């Protein structure tokens, strides 16, 4: 394929299809497809793709789209789907089931505001509502980051040390419907990068098992503890996957956490997705005018990369968090995690900024105002509602 | 890596006649237990993959690390059996594997919460056998009304007796034009086994409805379970019939015209029916209405005994 000008949705559809195709010498690939704005083009791409050994089932709901993935993964196939917003909410029961069954399903979540009131633009509340579903979560900041992260997602999900589903989130419209030039890898390279998918607990008539039956409290706690252990292995597995990626594709994608100018910064802002790219530009501009600021892109939300985050924030005394999501009665969801991560650092001022909710534009100017606020702060307050504050 | 997959002693393909193993905790007189054994018997030559949503059928497996099932089982979420089976079947097909995929669900998971999923799988004509053991109640949660509960029946959520008739799930499934739909009774063993085998043999989607006595929910004597469902057939309340491709009807048992005495023989042995809530004349008229429809369909769009 080489360098192409494509939308985020096209890139996601292409990468899912090619990753599925890479499993053609094993059990093949399958998934369920159900439309919802703004991810619809992804499932359209999958339905049109001519698989050598794959089947995408057009189902009647997101709940069944995930159920088809569950069945196909229990059959040993590589599995994937995509959804957004209320579709993810409707799918929720089976999202949890996929995590607790420990099936290596990859799902693209094109972030969109949950309704009502109805709003099709970006807000990360949909995928973040699924943070406790035993899925690894990545947030891609650009089209290329999306392409690369989808490949990393299959490597992490299907790694025998992890065996958990992975969600790759991107911004509705800002990424899904805009075009950027990206490097879309050819099938041969993807074949070289992705080993055959092996689901160790797939159903097998020669070894009959009951998958997902009843457990007593002790066994249930053990099951949850094993998922936690698998989550704790993710950062190491991800680093290996990135090393291998660099060998095969000749470029190095961002890991769980990516930084800009944090080494000597005392004021650091944290964001994910496309906000992180804008934030990076703001930091570069401010460095040019000799302001001592830095930024952290938090690409992985589950497992939350506490260790990498603490390292990135080592020299900081002021930390701001940009949250394009809102947990009513609390505040930004990234902020909750950052505050918990910094619990042993009482010297750090942590301020949450709720920004770009419901798809509002987060421009360099908006981020600049928030940086000014953070630099001048004497103490932290309750989360600041950026749109309401101006 | 441990999962919630409970290992059983492997049974060689072709040796699966005891689908439900000894030591399970099902109630005495449970119609589902009989149905599971006969399913294994009907599939004797083949090991199935079984999908069971939330229902007594999954409690039957017992707690990890043991399982009462002698076949691989996926315990699905309540509404998802037909979609999980779709995924399993798709992968089997991609790998040229003829392993039958069976859904085993109660009436709650079929008539109510799982209906959209079931309808979609039927509309796609997935190559799966969907079996509903219909005990006309949410038995696993202690006996609440479902849309399969007959009119007048007392449950914990229809304390005055259920108003409104039992949903005609066969009519709904037949309307999809699926290759095969049939009703089964554990009081009619040969008919039951033949229909199970027919469902397996016909390519595409099959729907089987088993009238499944539940002594706990029906407030009946466990040793009368088989008699009860036999009375249900003989009084005309549960017709035994099968429909091919949504249009070719065959009636398998033709009972005498319904009488109040025959209906009473069935109902009076269960304490879920009371004379205060059940209008016997109305029940009789409903049975007659149903049989007029089935008789007309079989006469107009019938299929001969040796033709299937």
Give the CATH superfamily of the largest domain in chain A.
Thiamin diphosphate (ThDP)-binding fold, Pyr/PP domains
Give the helices and strands of chain B as they follow along the chain.
EHEHEHEHHEHEHEHHEEHH
CATH-derived architecture of the largest domain in chain A: 3-Layer(aba) Sandwich
- Taken as a percent bin, the fraction of beta residues of chain A is 15-25%
User: What's the CATH first level of the largest domain in chain A?
Assistant: Alpha Beta
**Structural classification of chain A:** alpha/beta
Report Rg of chain B.
Answer: 19 Å
Largest sheet of chain A, if any? 7 strands, mixed
Q: What is the CATH topology classification name of chain B?
A: Rossmann fold
Structural class of chain B: alpha/beta
* Helix/strand order of chain A, N-terminal first: EHEHEHEHEHEHEEHEHEEHEEHEHEHEH
Q: Roughly what percent helix of chain B? A: 25-40%
Polypeptide structure, described:
The complex is a heterodimer of chains A (390) and B (308). By secondary structure, chain A is an alpha/beta fold. Chain A folds into two domains: 2-249, Thiamin diphosphate (ThDP)-binding fold, Pyr/PP domains (Rossmann fold); 257-386, Rossmann fold (3-Layer(aba) Sandwich), CATH 3.40.50.920. Helix content of chain A is 42%, strand content 20%. The longest helix of chain A is centred in the middle third of the chain and has 33 residues, at 217-249. Chain A is globular, with a radius of gyration of 20 Å. The termini of chain A are far apart. The model of chain A has no long low-confidence stretch (mean pLDDT 97). Chain B has 308 residues and is of the alpha/beta class. Chain B contains eleven helices and nine strands. Chain B has an eight-stranded mixed sheet, sandwiched between helices. In chain B, helix 1 packs across helix 7, helix 3 (81-94) packs parallel to helix 5 (115-123) and helix 9 (225-234) packs antiparallel against helix 10. The longest helix of chain B has 21 residues, at 280-300. The radius of gyration of chain B is 19 Å and the shape is globular. The chains are: A alpha/beta (390), B alpha/beta (308). Chains A and B meet through strand 3, helix 3, helix 4, strand 9 and helix 8 of A and strand 1, strand 3, helix 3 and helix 5 of B.
